[in-house]
Amino acid sequence: MKNFLIFNGQSLRDFGVYISGLNTYNAPSRDVDSVSVPGRNGTLTMDNGRYNNISVTYPAFICNNYDARVEGLRNFLLSQSGFKRLEDTYHPEEFRLARWAGEFTADTLDALIAGQFDLTFDCYPQRFLKDGEKQIEFTTNGNINNPYLQTALPLIRAYGTGSFSIGGISVAISSALTYTDIDCELQECYKDSLATNRNAYVTLTNGEFPKLSPGANAITLSGISKLIITPRFWIL
């Protein structure tokens, strides 16, 4: 099977583009500051509690009708701005958030019938699991299990007013337009979109948004009629 990419919902196979995934198994570096202290041997390191972006390069090729297809590919890539969803067939259970990193230089073969080139993307460090996009519903107390080693920052939809807790972190909602969306990664509360801001009606314990630590996370509801949690599990 020939492997291919899907970027922002567009299969690059539609441009006749196929890839090699040799560089897709690399891991990002941890964000650490190194400090040299006079009179002290070695280096003091300060861990910033995060990972750096990673550059992912796919060796790619077009086997035929290169001249016309590469023009369509180039114009598509140039039309994309910001970070978009990136999937490849080497890792069918995962996706990245990525932006096309820029230059496009191709080696053409056989009088523009075929060509090969690199596609390089600047990617967030996370490899998100498609399994983490499945919504989990709670109408009573329960547990949600994070089977991975990385702490996930879920998207939560809470119906009604009252309070709930996830893993010991409590959230109180004093007013709701049917439901309130709580994005624990963006650290914003809203209804449907950021344009309908609801931060003023949500109180967080110590200002901390809920998170899903590895293992079991207890869910408790008080007054809230229903929680729908999209866990956003990820790995490195």
Account of the 3D structure:
The chain is mainly β and 236 residues long. It has two domains: 5-125, Elongation Factor Tu (Ef-tu), domain 3, CATH 2.40.30.200; 131-235, Sandwich (Jelly Rolls). It is built from one helix and 23 strands. The chain has one helix spanning 66-78; strands at residues 5-7, 10-11, 17-19, 30-35, 44-51, 54-62, 84-88, 94-100, 106-109, 114-123, 127-129, 136-138, 142-146, 155-159, 162-166, 169-173, 179-183, 188-191, 193-197, 202-204, 215-222, 226-230, 234-235. Strands 1, 2, 3, 6, 7, 8, 9, 10, 11 and 23 form a ten-stranded antiparallel sheet that branches. The radius of gyration is 22 Å and the shape is globular. The model has no long low-confidence stretch (mean pLDDT 91).
Q: Mean of residue pLDDT?
A: 91
Quick one: how many beta strands?
Answer: 23
Q: Please report the number of helical segments.
A: 1
- CATH architectural group of the largest domain: Beta Barrel
Helical percentage: under 10%
